[in-house]
Design brief:
The structure is a single chain. The chain has helices at 59-73, 88-96, and strands at residues 11-18, 24-33, 42-50, 79-81. It is of the alpha+beta class and 110 residues long. A 4-stranded mixed β-sheet has the order 1-2-3-4, covered by helices on one side. It is globular.
Length: 110
């Protein structure tokens, strides 16, 4: 037997929220990933971040809602938000936005 490696088309989208001067105050990355099990891609939401001086104003919520809206418009069948195990505030944040705990993520740092 031998392995066959095939490159699939993926897309990365940076979503930024800018203040009136054009300075980025919040961001998230959304990766569209395709596989052979579904016609449409799924979205992986990563690196959701709000600058410290702008936290507590609902900007993280706005960024995630924009990502969900974009994922829907791009035909994604699901969107996944990830967080480390001990970040309970982040877990609650995702739950409040309609995400559900679904499974476990296994990781190997390379």
């Amino acid at each position: 037997m031998k392995f066959k490696l095939e490159t699939k088309q993926s897309k990365a989208i940076r979503i930024s929220l800018l203040d009136d001067s054009g300075k980025e105050v919040a961001r998230a990355f959304m990766f569209l990933i395709t596989n052979d099990l579904h016609e449409g891609p799924y979205a992986l939401l990563e690196d959701v971040f709000v600058n410290e001086e702008f936290r507590g104003q609902g900007l993280g919520k706005q960024i995630v809602k924009k990502a969900v809206e974009e994922a829907k418009s791009l035909g994604c069948y699901k969107i996944i938000g990830t967080s480390r195990n001990l970040r309970e505030k982040v877990h609650e944040f995702y739950r409040l936005l309609g995400f559900e705990e679904y499974g476990k993520e296994f990781r190997m740092n390379l």
